[in-house]
TrEMBL record:
Listed SMART domains: PKS_ER
Phylogenetic placement of the source organism: Eukaryota, Fungi, Dikarya, Basidiomycota, Agaricomycotina
A GO term for molecular function: oxidoreductase activity, acting on NAD(P)H
Domain Enoyl reductase (ER), chain residue ranges per copy: 15-342
Name used for this protein in its record: GroES-like protein
Entry-linked CDD domains: enoyl_reductase_like
Xref: SUPFAM superfamilies: GroES-like, NAD(P)-binding Rossmann-fold domains
């Protein structure tokens, strides 16, 4: 199959903050790419935010997906990818006519996550942004050891918002890396995040939580990941750290007002190794691209070994046609420790 010989259904931006399910050409593949027939996709906050803030027409929304390789592009070794292979991954949706909320998506072959048969497409669809962000944070920017060579001394790390998608995977990666994991959640989710690997959990809504974390770590906490990065969390996370300060990896950019606290903004799109113009300007980071290739292999390996637990799935009906309902559900603040997911084959007009 050639990329332009077939049309597909996709969620396409209209240029006014809105979108629609349309028939458009399948995106063409270039050297180093693969074309994936998408089986399932999952939703992230960035999906509805991109539709609202990046008001350009004819772009395909959606980042996270899982499916099977439909076509392998030039310069992709046959030992790397093959037609029919089960893979997962993510793309920067909403900025080009190539996004996850579609029947087909094009990605770099080296960044595809080989999906073990033990992992369903619905589970695989949630891996992309959450897992790559967690890996970039812990290993590239906070410089912790990977699960392949875990820490011999359990260094403390704080993951604020352990029930968020990125937080759930960050807890698991951190624990597999031999770290002592501190996190926050609502009291009803304390046991849930402990089952993921959290050593100590604190109520995110308790004003005393930063002081409690400081006390529990004996004032030695130097590393944190802020999975919310807005409202009160910049101050809460900053004041949880040691008196000497430390480093906070943030998912939205901010500067801490606390003396000695450095912040570093994590943007998963940097693993593509290309310049980024949205949501903010970011030059290509070759090191992140090289690391991303290794993270794809690590994620697949841990899945094969049964060491990563998927986020509980909330399946929306009608496939891609249900995206509007999913966006409204998320914007209303109804998402709690779950991942909104859509099966592409449930979309009206799409062949099973």
């Amino acid at each position: 199959m050639t990329g332009c010989s077939k049309s597909m259904k996709a969620i396409v931006t209209l240029g006014n903050g809105r979108f629609d399910l349309k028939d458009i050409p399948v995106p063409p593949i270039s050297a180093g790419d693969i074309l994936v027939k998408v089986a399932a996709v999952s939703q992230n906050p960035v999906d509805w935010k991109t539709a609202l803030l990046h008001q350009k027409s004819d772009n395909v929304l959606g980042c996270d997906f899982a499916g099977t390789v439909a076509e392998v592009g030039p310069e992709v070794p046959s030992t790397m990818r093959r037609v029919g292979e089960r893979v997962a991954g993510f793309i920067q949706g909403g900025v080009a006519p190539n996004g996850a909320f579609a029947e087909y998506v094009v990605i770099q072959a080296v960044l595809a996550i080989p999906l073990p048969d033990s992992v369903s497409f619905e589970e695989g669809a949630q891996l992309g942004i959450a897992c790559f962000t967690a890996c970039l944070t812990l290993y590239q920017y906070l410089k912790f050891p990977t699960p392949d060579c875990p820490a011999k001394v359990p260094t403390p790390v704080l993951i604020w918002s352990g029930t968020s998608a990125t937080g759930q995977y960050a807890i698991q990666f951190a624990k597999l890396s031999g770290l002592r994991v501190f996190t926050t959640a609502s009291p009803k989710h304390f046991e849930f995040v402990k089952a993921l690997g959290a050593d100590e959990v604190f109520d995110y809504a308790d004003s005393r939580t930063p002081r409690k974390i400081f006390a529990s770590t004996s004032g030695t906490l130097r590393h944190a990941m802020d999975c919310i990065s807005q409202d009160r969390t910049p101050n809460q996370v900053s004041t949880s750290l040691s008196k000497e300060g430390g480093t906070i990896a943030t998912l939205l950019p901010y500067t801490s007002r606390t003396k000695g606290v450095k912040t570093v903004s994590i943007l998963a799109y940097t693993i593509f190794g290309k310049d980024i113009s949205f949501p903010y300007t970011q030059p290509a980071v070759a090191e992140d691209h090289a690391s991303g290739i290794q993270y794809a292999k690590l994620i697949s390996k841990l899945l094969s070994e049964g060491k990563l637990k998927p986020i509980p799935i909330k399946m929306f009906p009608n496939g891609l046609q249900g995206v509007q309902d999913g966006f409204e559900y998320m914007r209303a603040g109804e998402v709690h420790a779950e991942k909104i997911t859509y099966r592409v084959s449930d979309t009206p007009g799409v062949d099973p």
